Structure formats: C-alpha cells, structure tokens
Amino acid sequence: MTQLAAQRCEACTGETPRLQPDEIDRLRTELDAGWDVVDGRKLFRRFAFKDFARAFAFAAKVAELAEQEGHHPDLRVGWGYLEVETTTHAIGGLSRNDFILAAKIDRLTD
Length: 110
Prior knowledge:
It contains 3 helices and 4 strands. It has a domain at 41-110: Transcriptional coactivator/pterin dehydratase (Gyrase A, domain 2). It is 35% helix and 19% strand. It is globular. It has helices at residues 21-28, 52-69, 96-108; strands spanning 36-38, 42-48, 74-78, 81-86. The protein starts with 20 loop residues before the first helix and ends with a helix. It is an alpha+beta fold.
C-alpha cells in the first residue's frame, strides 16, 4: 500500500492549497501508471473491462469509496470501460485529496 492510500481525504475549501507542478510530479509516482494529469488540474484514468456489467460494478465500488472519503470524482461508464476524472472543485485544480482518492481506487484493482 502506498503512503497516499493509507491517508484520508480532508474537507476542502477555497483556502485549500492547489498543488504545485513539482508536488504533482512527486505524488504521481505513488499512483498506477494509468493515471494522467490533464492540464495540471485533473487526474484521469480509463479502466477496461470485458463487458458493461463489470464496468458498472467497478464504478459502484469507486462510488462507495468516494462516499467514504467525501471526495467525489466524475465517472463515465460505457460498454467495457469506466473513466474516472478527479479534481478539487473548490480550488479549480488538484489537491492532495485527488491523489489520495486515486491511490485508493488503484487498490480496488488489486
């Protein structure tokens, strides 16, 4: 388990610091290589599955985890795929919470 996956998301406000590029690069090393940083503001990952039912079941696991953490990604489910995009809306960019949630999602695939 990564250090990030062992942490909990904390409530964010407009005062929550936005991560700087060097912090993003450092935290990115704790995530699965499937995650992409988009415009320095979002984390994105596409998961592939054999059918819609498996994609939807995994989306439900991600949704349950997001509820537990209080940090909610955007999910797009289709036949054989789930796309996950996370950002911290309160600051219009990435916070530590986005990386914590991504690390915990990675654990769901183990």
